[in-house]
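Appendix B. One record, verbatim.
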Amino acid sequence: MSFSGNVTIGLALILFGTTPRLAQSALSHDEAMARAMAADPILTARTSARDADRARADQARSRPNPELGLELENAFGTGPFGGTGSSELTADFSQRFELGGDRRARITEATAAIEVADATLSAAERALSERVTQDFVALLGAEQRLKVAESRVALTRRLLPTLRRRVEAGASPPVDVLRGEVAVRLAEIETTSAQATAASARRQLASNWRGDESDAAELSGTLDVPGGRPRSLADLAEALADHPRLKQWESEVARRQAVIDQEKAERIPDVTVGAGVRQFQDTDDTAVVLSASLPLPLWNRNTGAIAAARYKTAEAEAERDAVRLQLYRDLNTAYGAMNAACDEARQLNRAVLPEAQRTLSSIEAGYDQGRFDALDLLEASTLVSETQSLYADRAVACGQARATVKALAGHDPWSRP
C-alpha cells in the first residue's frame, strides 16, 4: 500500500472515530447529571431551606395558646391575713385573640417564603445542569482533540520511512528527513498536551459528584453541532419571565409586602379575654371572675417598622428589576456567542475541512509521483489536523453557549414550541 493510502486510513479514523466503546462502561450525559444532582451539597442545602420554610408555614397557621392562671391573694401576711384563713384563691382561663389580620398576614408571608425557597432550589438546579453540561461538552471536545493529535503522530511517523527511502534513492534532499522528525516531535508534544487537557477535563466533570478521573474515563455521546437556525432571541427572551431567579425575587417582593401587612396588623392591639373562679377562704364563698385587657397604642404605633418594611419591599422590587435586566443581558451574550460558534463550526465542517482534505489528497498523489516534496505533504496534513482541532474548539464553544441559553430560557434553543 502507498503512503497516500495510509494517510487516507488515518484521516478516516479521525473523521469517523475509533473502535466503538463498550456501552456498559460509557458515561452518558443523563447519568452524569443524575450523579451531580444526587451529590451536590448546594441542592441539599436549598432543599433543607425549603423544608424549613414549609415547617414555618405550618407553624404560622397556629393560633395563640390559651393561658391557665392560678392566683393566691391576702395570704401569709400579718394580723388576720396570717396563713391562708383570709386568703382568696383565683383560677382563671384566658385567651388572646389576634385582631387586625395578624394570622392572615403571617400565613401569607410564610407561604411566599416557600415560593422563594422553591425558586431558589430551581435556580440552583438550572445552574448545576448548565455546569455539568458544559463540563461534559468540554470533555467531548478534549477527547476529540486528543484523537486528532494521536492521528497526527501516527501520520507523521508513517511518513518517516518513506522520506528515508526517497533520500536514500536521491529523490529528496536529506533535510526532508529532519523536517519529518521535527514534525513527529511536535505532534508528540501536542499529543502530550492533549492528554493532560483530557485528563483535567475528566477530573473537572467528575468533581461535580466528588468522583475521580476514572468515573469519566469513557463517555457516551458525540460532539455535534445542530443544523438549521435556533429560535429567535425574542422568542427565547419571553421565556425569561419563568426563570427561577426572577421568580425568586417576585416571590420575595410578595413576601415583603406581606411583612408590611404584618407590621400594620401590629398597630391594632390584640385583646385578651379571661374567665375564672375565686374562692374566699374566710367565708367559703365562691364568685366568678371575668377579665379583658387591651394594650393602648399611645406611644408605639409601629410606624418605624412599617416604614422599614416598605423600604425593604422597594429594595426587593429593584433587585427583581435588576435580575430581569441581567437575565436578558446574559441571554443576549450567550445567544450571540452560540450563533457565532455554531456557524463557524458548521462552516469548518461543511466547507473548510473538505477543502483541506481534498488538498491533502492531491498533494499525496503528487508526492507519490514526485511533484511535491515532504514539506508540502507535512503542511497539508498539518492543515487538516489544525482544521479538525479548530472545529472541535468551536463545537465545544457552541455546545457550552447552547447550555447557557438552555439554562436561561428553560428549554433547548433548537426546540420548537
